[in-house]
Design a protein that fits this description.
This protein has 359 residues and is an alpha/beta fold. It has twelve helices and eleven strands. The protein folds into two domains: 142 residues, Isopropylmalate Dehydrogenase; 153 residues, 3-Layer(aba) Sandwich (Isopropylmalate Dehydrogenase).
Length: 359
C-alpha cells in the first residue's frame, strides 16, 4: 500500500474525512470528483480506492491505493474481519487511529457498519448504532432513524435513537429543542406494536426530565413529512421501507410532472413558465442535497451516502461529515444520553454484542 502526502505546509486540518471510494454505482472516479468539489469548499480528504482511478493528490487531498472492495459482500461481518486490506476497513482504521475524524462510505451499508463496529467500536453505553437521515422536506427537514442498521430493535434501542437523532438535528440542522415522535399506525398512546407502546411510554417519561428534546407522541405515516416532528424514530426495517417509499414516490412525482409538461404544445409553454420553480422544487427534495445517512453510536462519526449518488451528492456527504465532526456530534450525542441516564450500564448481552442484522 502506498500513500501520497498532503500538499501544502504540512499542517493537518483538524477535521480530515476518510472516504471509501469503492462500491459507488458510477465508480470510484465519481466519488473522487465529489471529493475534489468538497476540497474546493475547504474540506481535507483521504481517498481510499484504486489509485489508477482516483487521479492525483493535491492540496487537501490524499490518495491511498486500496483497490480491494467488500461493498457487495454477502457477509459483511466476515468480510470486514478477514479482509484488512479492504478500502472500508482501512478507512475505519484511519478513523480509529486518529488520522481522520470522520468517515464517508460510498459502498454498502453493511460493510460500513461492520468495519465501524470492529475498528472504531461502539461509543460507551451504546446498545446499537443507528442510521439517521435528514429527509429533504422543503423548509423543514425531518430526521428519520433507524433507516437500515437494525432490522430488529428493542425499546432501549429506540430510546437511544431518539437522543441520537435530537443531537443530530440540533448540531447539524440547527434545530433547537427538536420535537421527537415515534412512527406508528395511530396517534393514540396505546396504538402500535408492543415496541412502539413501550418506547412511547419511556420517551414521554424521559422528555419530562430532559431538555434534549420535546416529545410529541406517535406519528402516523401520512404525518411523517408534515413538520409535526423534527425527529422520528423506528426500527431499521420499518425505517428503511419508509425511506425507500418516500424516495420512490418523489421520483415518480417528478417524472410525472415532467411528462405532463411535455405532453402538448400548450403544456410545453406552461412548462417553460414553471421551469424555474420546478427546478427549485426538484433541488429541494433531491436526496443528494442531504449527503446521505449518518451512522451514529460509534466512537467517531460516519456518513453513508447512496451508492447511486453523483459527485455532487458525495461532495455533500463529505461536507456533512466534516460539519458533524466539527460540531463534535459524537460527544454531544453521548452527553445527551448520559445526562438523561439513557446509556447502558450493564454488560453487553450476547445479543447486543453481536452485529445487528442489516436491512
Amino acid at each position: 500500500m502506498s500513500a501520497s502526502s498532503l500538499v501544502g505546509d504540512g499542517r493537518a486540518d483538524p477535521v480530515v474525512v476518510a472516504v471509501d471510494c469503492n462500491g459507488a454505482d458510477l465508480g470510484p472516479a465519481e466519488v473522487a470528483a465529489g471529493a475534489r468539489l468538497a476540497v474546493g469548499q475547504g474540506a481535507h480528504v483521504i481517498l481510499y480506492g484504486p489509485a489508477s482511478e482516483l487521479g492525483q493528490a493535491s492540496e487537501g487531498l490524499q490518495i491511498v491505493d486500496a483497490p480491494v472492495s467488500i461493498a457487495k459482500s454477502a457477509d459483511p461481518a466476515r468480510a470486514a474481519r478477514s479482509t484488512p486490506q479492504a478500502s472500508i476497513v482501512q478507512c475505519a482504521r484511519a478513523l480509529a487511529g486518529g488520522q481522520a475524524r470522520a468517515l464517508v462510505c460510498a459502498g454498502g451499508t453493511g460493510a460500513a457498519l461492520a468495519a465501524g463496529l470492529f475498528n472504531v467500536k461502539r461509543a460507551s453505553g451504546i446498545y446499537r448504532p443507528a442510521l439517521a437521515i435528514p429527509l429533504p422536506v422543503p423548509g423543514n427537514p425531518v430526521t428519520l432513524l433507524d433507516v437500515g442498521a437494525n432490522a430488529e430493535a428493542r425499546r432501549e434501542h429506540l430510546v437511544q435513537f431518539a437522543f441520537m437523532g435530537a443531537a443530530l438535528a440540533e448540531a447539524v440542522l440547527g434545530v433547537q429543542t427538536p420535537r421527537v415522535g415515534v412512527l406508528s399506525n395511530g396517534e393514540e398512546d396505546a396504538r402500535g406494536s408492543k415496541l412502539v407502546i413501550e418506547t412511547h411510554a419511556e420517551l414521554a417519561q424521559r422528555a419530562g426530565v430532559s431538555d434534549a428534546f420535546s416529545f410529541v407522541g406517535n406519528i402516523e405515516g401520512d404525518a411523517l413529512l408534515s413538520g409535526v416532528a423534527d425527529v422520528v424514530v423506528t426500527d431499521g426495517l420499518t425505517g428503511n421501507i419508509a425511506l425507500k417509499l418516500i424516495e420512490g414516490v418523489s421520483q415518480t412525482m417528478l417524472r410525472a410532472i415532467r411528462e405532463a409538461a411535455l405532453s402538448s404544445p400548450r403544456s410545453q409553454l406552461g412548462g417553460l413558465l414553471l421551469r424555474p420553480a420546478l427546478r427549485s422544487f426538484a433541488h429541494s427534495i433531491d436526496p443528494e442535497g442531504q449527503g446521505g445517512a449518518y451512522l451514529l453510536g460509534l466512537r467517531a462519526l460516519a456518513v453513508v451516502p447512496h451508492g447511486r449518488f453523483t459527485r455532487h451528492g458525495f461532495a455533500q456527504a463529505i461536507l456533512r461529515a466534516r460539519r458533524g465532526a466539527t460540531e463534535d456530534l459524537t460527544a454531544r450525542t453521548h452527553a445527551a444520553l448520559s445526562a438523561a441516564g439513557a446509556l447502558r450500564t450493564r454488560a453487553l448481552s450476547a445479543q447486543d454484542a453481536s452485529l445487528p442484522p442489516i436491512s
